[in-house]
Design goal:
Layout lengths: L1 H36 L5 E5 L6 H17 L3 E5 L6 H8 L7 E6 H5 L1 H4 L11 E10 L1 E6 L7 H10 L4 E6 L2 H14 L2 E6 L3 H9 L5 E5 H9 L3 E6 L26 E8 L4 H16 L1 H9 L3 E4 L2 H21 L6
Parallel strand pairs: 1-2, 1-3, 6-7, 6-8
Antiparallel strand pairs: 3-10, 4-10, 4-11, 5-8, 5-9
Helix pairs in contact: 1-10
Length: 334
């Protein structure tokens, strides 16, 4: 009887193992097949801001390129609000099949966790990194009517303004913290006025609603070159090739200052690895194309890469960096 039960147990164990092996093999086959046919229907790319800012511009550039290469529609959807957390959360909770992607600012992934209470998504646990699309400086921008010529003038003007503070338009939390690092070294403060994207901030500057915008270069470059806005300084260690006459903050008297911003392409956690691989390979091709590089450089963007591991580490490092900035500025999550 003992031998009978042992033999039956072994046969059952072998059967279960065989079933698992078949299931795993089938899953691998399905994943591979999925990658080969992906995408077989339109793909949605969510942007957490209103049209007109860097994330929107990059999303539309890459949507066109992905459509050309993968022979399927890639549709950009703007879901603005709450410092991009509405759009980011929608993607975090979307089906992880590769048909909903996210173009996120570094702020949505690294400063929202620092500045927002009860954030509905986790930037590390809820997303799969596909690519760092690009990095860029922020540009300290003011209306042409403001009587300042450079960043030092702006600092002095702020100190002598009615309440000692200028109104600063903020489309995202990361821009708030960059502005805080600027005002901290300069010994001034800004009144942060929230907007739903860089495009609306630019409109606010043009309309005289606000006096300062520390904004992504692609959002302001056209207005600056047309003489409708003044660019006083860029926040990166080196000048922007797109705005070569605009000095850096370091050149403006604050040595060592460097605060680049970046934009990433992400997918919901659990997206099949073969689908992620296909997207990464395709985006890598796009990032190397001369046309893409030239279009990005005209906007002041440095093309990124598809090193998912490096992007994951950068997200964690930036969260740590901005946490320290917020603590120093005594900014509490709201």
């Amino acid at each position: 009887m003992y031998n009978f039960f042992c033999g039956a147990t072994r046969r059952l164990t072998h059967s279960i193992a065989a079933c698992i092996a078949i299931a795993c093999g089938s899953f691998g086959f399905l994943s591979s097949a999925q990658a080969q046919t992906y995408p077989d229907r339109p793909v949605r790319i969510v942007v957490g801001f209103a049209p007109g800012g860097t994330n929107d511009i990059l999303a539309r550039l890459f949507a066109v390129k992905l459509q050309e290469k993968l022979k399927q529609s890639f549709v950009v959807e703007n879901k603005a609000g709450a410092n991009s957390s509405i759009g980011n959360d929608a993607v975090a909770k979307a089906k992880a099949d590769g048909y909903t992607l996210l173009v996120s600012s570094s702020g949505g992934l690294t400063t929202n966790p620092v500045l927002m209470k009860n954030l509905p998504y986790d930037p590390v646990k809820d997303f799969e990194p596909i690519a760092l699309l690009g990095s860029f400086p922020l540009v300290v921008t003011v209306p042409v009517t403001l009587p300042v010529k450079n960043f030092a003038d702006l600092v002095q003007y702020s100190k002598t303004s009615k309440d000692g503070k200028l109104d600063h338009g903020t489309p995202t939390t990361s821009f708030v913290l960059v502005a805080e690092t600027l005002t901290a070294i300069a010994g001034v403060k800004f009144n942060h006025i929230p907007y739903k994207g860089s495009g609306p901030v630019v409109a606010g500057l043009l309309g005289g609603e606000i006096q300062v915008g520390v904004l992504d270069s692609p959002a302001v470059i056209t207005q600056v070159k047309a003489g409708k806005l003044k660019a006083l300084a860029v926040t990166t260690a080196k000048r922007s090739d797109a705005l070569p006459d605009v000095p850096t903050i370091a050149e403006s008297g604050f040595a060592g200052y460097d605060a680049p911003i970046w934009t990433a392409l992400m997918a919901p956690k659990g997206t099949p690895e073969p689908v992620l691989t296909r997207l990464r390979l395709t985006v890598a091709e796009i990032l190397k194309e001369k046309e893409t590089i030239e279009k990005m450089q005209v906007l002041g963007l440095d093309p990124g890469d598809t090193d998912a591991s490096a992007l994951t580490k950068r997200i964690a490092a930036d969260i740590s960096r901005w946490s320290a900035v917020a603590k120093a500025a005594n900014i509490k999550p709201e």
